[in-house]
Write a sequence for this structure.
């Protein structure tokens, strides 16, 4: 009998488009706006925190747990800074409403809050105004920059090179392995399975271990090593990061989707599909109800996903506790970057604020200091961007933490083994939505639903569609 999901699944969450996931409906791979632990809200919620006699700040978000983070942090700020206390009113809006309201107020030059969350897919629209709309955060981030993950900070830069957003998480892509299911099928102990996983360095190694598992499982066509996505670009982002490529072209370049990294990944996935090493992810990717059920049924035993996916296990697949091991992603060639940051929300300070300096100082402290990062990890479950925390034993190896309890190994040990310089970045710019929409609606379905379809032809069609947008 199938295990049942333990709570109502994230209808509201899945109705929000995360740029790294794609599309405009559940079949097209929509995901949580932040790619994090919680759904975007469907109603307006307002709460005020802090010192009523302090400087008043307005903050907008689309996730109530984010607002609660600022509520916690402002109380600590006021204790530490009695000479410049803050009262903050946090209003949580539905995802689309908040971003529309923010952009409208920035364009009008009135009505914007002091501080506002901006989902990464919406960030190009908001950062377009650069320092006319937003406060550059360079001076306020400098105390933390030496230990912040560079790729994540760069995600929230403007074309002028200034930092305009403070991140919640790295979103580092890792590989999740079901050690219990692998051991049962292969007749191996947990330590023996982990030794095999740790021996995986390249995609060839990964394929070889997968072949060994599928043969041992003896249910070819039913039990698979992994699943590939027709409604999400995570696999492709990982491939690009490994080769240091970026199909967007960044702020100044022209988009080019006909990249060797993309071709290699799609061709490899077609091979896996033909050999029954992989299946197409139910409903397009693993971050939907069908994907959760597929994992719980042990129909797949490995897949790459950002570290924020840990919360999907704790929230929706609790019976999997103790089964899963987190590891580095394989690379095409040894020595390549082995991860990429996916998803995210950058928080900005607007030029309309009457307390810009205080708002910027508080924001960066709340999201980048070790105190702020501790609360982000404890309450939001995100892989934090300040690497000073990664090597802090009290922070990283706290056995009371739900994620440390859930997985076989410590998540931050994996992050440390990756290293902040081995986490790549794919730019999120004006052309990004066009690329993602076409990839998810057409390209991935062409080449993965029909693994005999020419990858070169599919990417040429994609390039033609992107070029039409670029030429406008």
């Amino acid at each position: 009998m199938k295990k049942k999901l333990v709570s109502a699944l994230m209808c509201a969450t899945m109705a929000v488009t995360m740029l790294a996931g794609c599309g405009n409906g559940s079949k097209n791979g929509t995901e949580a706006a932040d790619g994090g632990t919680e759904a975007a809200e469907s109603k307006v919620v307002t709460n005020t925190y802090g010192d009523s006699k302090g400087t008043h700040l307005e903050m907008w978000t689309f996730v109530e747990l984010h607002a609660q983070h600022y509520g916690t942090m402002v109380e600590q700020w006021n204790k530490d800074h009695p000479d410049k206390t803050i009262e903050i009113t946090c209003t949580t809006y539905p995802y689309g409403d908040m971003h529309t309201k923010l952009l409208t107020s920035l364009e009008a030059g009135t009505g914007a809050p002091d501080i506002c969350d901006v989902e990464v897919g919406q960030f190009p629209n908001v950062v377009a105004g650069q320092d006319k709309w937003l406060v550059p955060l360079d001076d306020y981030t400098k105390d933390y920059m030496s230990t912040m993950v560079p790729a994540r900070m760069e995600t929230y830069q403007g074309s002028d090179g200034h930092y305009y957003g403070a991140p919640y998480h790295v979103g580092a892509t890792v590989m999740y392995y079901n050690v219990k299911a692998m051991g049962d099928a292969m007749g191996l102990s947990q330590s023996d399975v982990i030794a095999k996983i740790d021996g995986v360095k390249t995609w060839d190694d990964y394929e070889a271990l997968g072949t060994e598992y599928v043969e041992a499982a003896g249910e070819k066509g039913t039990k698979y090593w992994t699943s590939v996505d027709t409604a999400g670009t995570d696999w492709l982002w990982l491939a690009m990061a490994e080769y240091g490529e970026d199909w967007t072209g960044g702020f100044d370049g022209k988009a080019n989707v006909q990249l060797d990294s993309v071709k290699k990944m799609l061709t490899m996935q077609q091979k896996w599909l033909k050999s029954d090493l992989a299946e197409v992810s139910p409903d397009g990717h693993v971050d939907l109800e069908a994907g959760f059920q597929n994992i719980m049924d042990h129909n797949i035993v490995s897949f790459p996903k950002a570290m924020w996916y840990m919360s999907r296990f704790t929230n929706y697949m609790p019976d999997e506790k103790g089964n899963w091991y987190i590891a580095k992603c394989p690379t095409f060639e040894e020595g390549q970057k082995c991860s990429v940051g996916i998803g995210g929300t950058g928080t900005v300070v607007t030029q309309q604020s009457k307390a810009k300096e205080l708002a910027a100082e508080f924001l960066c402290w709340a999201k980048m200091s070790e105190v702020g990062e501790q609360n982000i990890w404890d309450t939001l479950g995100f892989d934090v961007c300040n690497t000073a925390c990664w090597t802090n034993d009290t922070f990283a190896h706290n056995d009371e933490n739900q994620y440390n309890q859930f997985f076989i190994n410590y998540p931050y040990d994996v992050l440390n083994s990756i290293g902040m310089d081995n986490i790549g970045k794919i730019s999120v710019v004006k052309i990004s939505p066009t690329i993602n929409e076409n990839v998810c609606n057409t390209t991935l379905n062409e080449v993965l639903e029909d693994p005999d379809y020419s990858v070169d032809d599919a990417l040429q069609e994609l390039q033609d569609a992107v070029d039409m947008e670029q030429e406008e």
Q: What stands out?
A: Confidence is low (pLDDT under 50) at residues 1-34.
